Queue: 4 jobs
Job 1
Amino acid sequence: MTSTSGDAAGPALPAEPAIDEQVAIYQREFPEVDPQVETIVSALSRLNRRMHVAYSRQLAALGITNAEWEVLKALVLAGKPYRLGPGDLAKRLGLTPAAMTHRVDRMVGDGLVTRARDETNRVRVNIELTGEGRTKWLDAMRMAATFEADVLQDLGGDERGTLAGILTRMLVRVESDQPDAGGRLVDLDQDDQSEGTTSG
Amino acid sequence: MTSTSGDAAGPALPAEPAIDEQVAIYQREFPEVDPQVETIVSALSRLNRRMHVAYSRQLAALGITNAEWEVLKALVLAGKPYRLGPGDLAKRLGLTPAAMTHRVDRMVGDGLVTRARDETNRVRVNIELTGEGRTKWLDAMRMAATFEADVLQDLGGDERGTLAGILTRMLVRVESDQPDAGGRLVDLDQDDQSEGTTSG
DNA sequence: ACCCTAAAGTTCGATGCTAAACACTACATG
DNA sequence: CATGTAGTGTTTAGCATCGAACTTTAGGGT
């Protein structure tokens, strides 16, 4: 069978192959591939994707979009007074300044942030979290924490430590190849079954 | 300094906080957070993002976009004769059929795939890999394999096995919450430092 | 044979993003 | 002070995507 149904004779969903099947196909089509590496990369990407979908759904229930939440997070991470320029925001979120201009427009309209020219340097603009924005962030944070705890539920403390360590080392490796990479160029399309390599 | 530079007195890049700093801030702003969970989730997301950027760059050197590569992968994974309908492709890539129509248009123009109505069922359309498409896929695959090996370079065989196992279990957990989730709703924005929770 | 429903793909209108052009401010230099 | 240059944010044009409406075909029930 092509996909997950395999044998159950169900409605035969043409969904996506399981990770194992995917790796097997890659081995057949491209023998030089390392199955273990491919498994890791595929799982990483698919996991990321699924979590993203879950976040989107739950945030929608809160009345905010994923895009808005990104901005809220960036502002909170900036620390009090939860204030950042559009340019900084754009860099941190991996967007162009132009996109950030529009995104902030919407968020100002929704009352999540305010926009004001800087007093001391009139080239600059300050985007600042409102009380409502901070509340929304908190709500989303609580929700996310619950979900994340659920995802990691089957892992023991040792495993969590190991996982955190391994991921951190991988991150160091990637970042060393990628000078500073504030993050332009982020296609960030989708990959469903193909994450084998793409979204990593 | 706000971010990574910290003390080096460099050009003071306003990049993004290191994972550790990020988690520390979250602890301060939202004490209920579990630092270990947050570290894992943040690292996962950031790793994914960085890898995605790297793929995009390298694919550009090959003359194809990330979007195109997704389609090539899906077709190869479908097995010979490397043929799938627009609808199936859309499901697997997490796009709407409308988007797939346009994406296929471009790829037909580039000679990577062909589009033809199905002989036996004239509602259906077959998108099929061309020789050039398959060649491009192979080139990209080789490139990706090299990069992925580099990312995992610091990990021993044991660690790789452990990692693969843990990720697979996490994936199972997420997918159980998320019925089948072919994948609509995928906002898939960006998150830079904020991946703390969002892109997962 | 004739509907009726479901399924597949495309077309249409709106949205959000990128890249490039533009406007404005600060600062250094003469 | 006048001017050049760099930095910051917005505007514009084009593109990819989504959601919804539409067209065409297949298959079932009468």
Job 2
Amino acid sequence: MSNRLKSAPAVSRTQILAEFVRDYLPGARADVAAGELGHIALPMRVAGGRTITTDRTSNAFVYLASGATKLIAKASNGREQIVAFHFAGELVSVPGKSCHSYNLAALVDCDALTMPADELLAIARGDPDFLETLLQNTIGALHRCRDKAVGLGRKNAQERLADFLVGMAMRIGQDQEGACLINLPMSRRDVGDSLGLTIETISRQFGELRELGLVKTAGRSQVFLPDIAGLRNLAGYI
Amino acid sequence: MSNRLKSAPAVSRTQILAEFVRDYLPGARADVAAGELGHIALPMRVAGGRTITTDRTSNAFVYLASGATKLIAKASNGREQIVAFHFAGELVSVPGKSCHSYNLAALVDCDALTMPADELLAIARGDPDFLETLLQNTIGALHRCRDKAVGLGRKNAQERLADFLVGMAMRIGQDQEGACLINLPMSRRDVGDSLGLTIETISRQFGELRELGLVKTAGRSQVFLPDIAGLRNLAGYI
DNA sequence: GGCAGTCATTGATCCAGATCAACGAGTATA
DNA sequence: TATACTCGTTGATCTGGATCAATGACTGCC
């Protein structure tokens, strides 16, 4: 799992494309797929903190060869809601025109491949396997977003943080037989912006979970979870 | 638009299937498509208030030939969050195994067609047009869910209700040159469960919007919006 | 058309988390 | 290794929406 956070530079731009083909078009001959995708896919290396730019006028897909990102929605008054985090190997669906303005920002140095959604779909029409992978991927994102909506609409601060930590443990944690070590690539502010809470509330809830013996922290990013099952109980799942 | 809320009975179960084919597989020969789908698709008529049952062990799709539904997530302590409303002609993606338990409930009498997701996808692999339609549909649902997450995470009660009413106006409203008449098929409780608020707060915010001249109500379900643009301004969009 | 039951509204009070404020701990730069 | 600066923690106070409570208005059923 530790490679999910790899931030070592991919050697070249063509290699980013090749990794995407390997991950999402395993049946395709690499040269053929790369040829078609090469015209619409823009590979890029993005420094942590910068925005991964996509055409804002329509939907886009971004493949993440390495690194970690946050997908941010902006509402009025500068309020920000992080709607999803993504890690190496994942494909992100970035909304274009919508009620809110969406941005994909790099949490650490990233290698990314941006593609306009309609052009990617035009290519995918020729490859049912790929189309189905895209669909399965999108269904997964939809269901994660719905689970998130439950938290934002109906859970208290402690449940939200427990939920977040369990989710991160599963996605980027180093499993240690029921326990787990996580190296969070995002700040407390990011956690707050993701859970609809303030930075102060996040800090206090970390304190509570620490007192409950469910969390140990070291420095700003190291989090150790000695009892994943216990955290799950707190998370308000049914 | 008024047919989006049609609740007159569809004549037969085969007709529900035929409507799905017409809406989502326009290129397919109806008899061929119906033959394949016939083995996996379960047509049903469901009375308002009842649950549209799907196999809970895996994801499902539900096509709504007529009526209106709410997709409910249950968290612990009986807390409920409505993650989406759906109307006639729409295809709903219902999560199976997840952190929360999901149910699709009929708001009014519905004609529905339930299909296991993996079996539907197996059929769709033979038809790129259909697969692409499913994907576009799911991307749309994902982006609506993200916009909803922004509201749940970062907006106050008034913005949430304004947002909700604008959304309903676009989906089931009868447009009247900048104004709009809506016949809400859901209760105040449902509106609250969708916006992460209580029934009392919904009621108070309806009062506020009424005083602002942005909403007129008649009975429990009739809502008139004289100034959609004004509501949009309140909704906290960027 | 009267009655029952559910749903919506309104008012009073409470509380979880926001906001405001100050301080401490990491991290980066010279 | 000192310095500056951002990030995280902790405390005091405030507030929007929840909760508790009571009343009023539809809707459906005899």
Job 3
Amino acid sequence: MSISSRFAVGIHILALIEINKDGVSTSDFIAGSVNTNPAVIRKIMGMLKNAGLVKVRPGIAGAQLAKNLSDITLLDVYKAVNVVQEKELFSIHENPNPDCPVGNNIQDAIIPLFENAQTALEKALGHITIEDVVRDLIDKENFENKKRSN
Amino acid sequence: MSISSRFAVGIHILALIEINKDGVSTSDFIAGSVNTNPAVIRKIMGMLKNAGLVKVRPGIAGAQLAKNLSDITLLDVYKAVNVVQEKELFSIHENPNPDCPVGNNIQDAIIPLFENAQTALEKALGHITIEDVVRDLIDKENFENKKRSN
DNA sequence: ATTACATGTAAATATAATTGTTACAGGTAA
DNA sequence: TTACCTGTAACAATTATATTTACATGTAAT
């Protein structure tokens, strides 16, 4: 099992809008960078829009960030693109046997433990911003270019 | 997306073996408590066995724990039942465009962030033992019985 | 040895999620 | 009106999950 790449693509989209801020970031343009179909980008973009992370309007080419780079955390993106439902990172078997002391209580016993672990994950995502990602991308690209010019 | 319930079932199995330690925990018996097919239990049990968490032998009825309760963490179970591959909790889109500064570096930028979050999750699981779960199960069952006798 | 019953495991199925594709309705501006 | 964009739905291909069925293999008691 793996969490949908919509999350990674969402991060990609936001970083690309920033780095291409002097250009026009259409779904076609973004799809070319992500290497997927423009409709996929538009769908994810719609989710980012609903979450208040980007501004984009029907008929008008290009998307813009709706917040400061440093005010968008990975957790915001993760929630926006809906890759994991609240409290449902881990699934639990349904209908354990209520006539068994274990079956009767296992769900109540496990649920808070799973929620705890999920919270730890999400907290970690909340500490990183898109600004961090963009900075890293620029550093890496500069380093690449420097290597190439040698 | 959700992490397979094999994890929750694995925890259920181990707790049940402990609580039924004076009885014989066959795959049929366990399946009755989990409320699933015995073949499912045998498959998961095989994984727990490979991970050194339970002792079970072909032809001989019943499973036993292979370690102390307090020496089995939820992380051990999680790894045993193979619900999330190493470093692959989050998936990343493949083949982003190498001719774009974002596409060219996004994977390297994101991977360590994702690994970090996954580690936070797993660390949380490492702090809980099956002993904790069993204690909670017993508490909950006692409380249930007390209510019923009133 | 045969019987009874357990585990180990593979194959087949149903269900659901992910990703990509195509198509088209509707918005905007030159 | 034309050209191009976003928004969205329908469809297919792929993959993972969960369950069921079946059977080979191991063990022990009669």
Job 4
Amino acid sequence: MSSDTEPAATEARRRSSTRSVTLRDVAQRAGVSSQTVSRVLRIPDEVAPHTRARVEAAVRECGYVPNLAARNLASNRSRIVATVIPSLSASVFSETLTGLSAVLASEGYQVLLGYTDYDDEREEQLIRSLLGRRPDGFFMTGVIHREAVVTMLRASDVPVVETWDWTDTPIDALVGFSNEDAMYEMVSFLHGAGYRAPCFVGSLVHGDHRSRRRLDGYLRAAETYWPGTEPRVIDASEHPLSLESGGPLLELAGRLHPEADVLVFATDIYANGALLAAQSRGIRVPEDIAVTGFGDFELSRLLGPGLTTVALPNQSIGREAAALLLDRMRGTEPPSRDVDLGFEIRRRGSA
Amino acid sequence: MSSDTEPAATEARRRSSTRSVTLRDVAQRAGVSSQTVSRVLRIPDEVAPHTRARVEAAVRECGYVPNLAARNLASNRSRIVATVIPSLSASVFSETLTGLSAVLASEGYQVLLGYTDYDDEREEQLIRSLLGRRPDGFFMTGVIHREAVVTMLRASDVPVVETWDWTDTPIDALVGFSNEDAMYEMVSFLHGAGYRAPCFVGSLVHGDHRSRRRLDGYLRAAETYWPGTEPRVIDASEHPLSLESGGPLLELAGRLHPEADVLVFATDIYANGALLAAQSRGIRVPEDIAVTGFGDFELSRLLGPGLTTVALPNQSIGREAAALLLDRMRGTEPPSRDVDLGFEIRRRGSA
DNA sequence: CCCAGGAATGTTAGCGCTATCGGCAGCGCT
DNA sequence: AGCGCTGCCGATAGCGCTAACATTCCTGGG
């Protein structure tokens, strides 16, 4: 059955003794050249049916698993999409990720994940190391990056999608919405609803650039609706991004700006935390103080009065970005390189 | 400066025109052999200081990023740890993942993530595809897998750590706790606290084997404390794993087992959802019905009366598993291949 | 003053795969 | 009969890197 088609197949296998089954092993077993086995795996239509059947049997018998590192090297394509997100625990991104990988997986791409913990230094290191795998595409969270990051990505000539924000100068492609406009509209809504003393609460330093954008929107709105007055702002960057921080922040706001009638949080996490804290301390929302969030988490519509917040296209960011990347990776030009998915003010009981 | 040390460096670069900077490009620039550049990158101590400095400068000037696929192929090591988790949205695993990748990253390993959505078929496909990257280690969630999965992993000769459960026959190594014992103890606690009509609520079919183990523990406890009586069990597998399912499940339990005095949920997600639903419907917990969970999420200690639940070693599972894998990957034998991290009944207001 | 022995660097031969081209049947057409 | 053409398969030459060995140069002890 196994003729000696392949030469040099004598007693090779030097370096490591425990290397796994290779194309050649399968080829020998099937009595064909390794090239044919490779074809069966990648373009089966170009192989005669009975040869194909024999090869497929051999593959199964050997338990052959193609070595993708070798495949990458030879083909100059990795079928990897490098994905940079700030954090895993913020469950927002997990939805985006789910959308992304669902679409990509259907086309045979794998997601290689890295997180930055909202730290620009780590982002740079991360991207350097991800670049080493020669990904076919890059999914980035945010549009604000170090100069070195932009340079590296540009130089690598890899399709890049930035997401979760908006800019006029994307590295390559863009799928998101304007954090600034969203916050502006939230304040507009509050103004329309009769609130007169809003107080922004969000992380300002750190590497959380999206929170910063929301502040910008808040400040612009404050200038529009209450010109000349000092806008109320509380920096939450000392508090970890968790529900638990809601209590301390609620208290802090009460101390620094007791006159505020609505707390405008930069994220649902803090806002929901504040709702929970208010509940356990007997503070009534929205009677004593109103609260708004940003993100529309699941918890936000189930908690107490329901959180008034901004709903974001979590899932669709992932799906749209994947579609866009697929186009770019195939070399076809997508309908548009900038996709604005918008947002929606979700009005509930808390404000 | 750049002598013609390397031969065959004429006008190579055939196949693809856009290939990136290689070792050889750097070597030419620095006037050394590519081997020396490789050494500077991996074992700088073996290179003379002034050569090293020159090479490092060249690396920077070229913006060189090593091709890890090529490195893998040549060295037979990928510095990748393949990681299989059921889902991203269940935030429990994100803590484990954080612990895992923190420890691994410090040793230069990257995490390649895949999720199964609690589906055995997808787990098998996933592992096949992950195996293609020739990971140096495998992190698995759960201890129950298809025969094919066990065979593949055993054959691949890669260190494997199974987690989040317990078994006497691990594939290789094990870091976890007994879901069964944990649920048994929870019921013991409830029995001791005077409850007499518990009702288990959890997903039974699907591929969620850990939920199944918890049921086993429940049944064993029921047999111990209320022998001869039919244990109350509700299958939640029709309901998505989200807070929102808490309401419907609460209602279902009330209809099927109105006599139950405590609902024993297999996960905090359902339990917290039920707490939220009870709150909005005016059902008092624990007076009208008591509730327990499993997992001790952040929300669980902030919500209403506080959820009585089982605290699990989320983070340490990741850290311990990483440490164990590192040992195995280095070829050193870890202190023990089976690590039981235990659990803890967290008593709060809900039961 | 010579040579053993180590430090520093270079040379060679792959790792497992794919791109590319070349060869050889078998077909229909003039 | 001869021509090209298509379908199928094999041989060859790398992809960018590292392991293993070879070579060169320098040091110091006899």
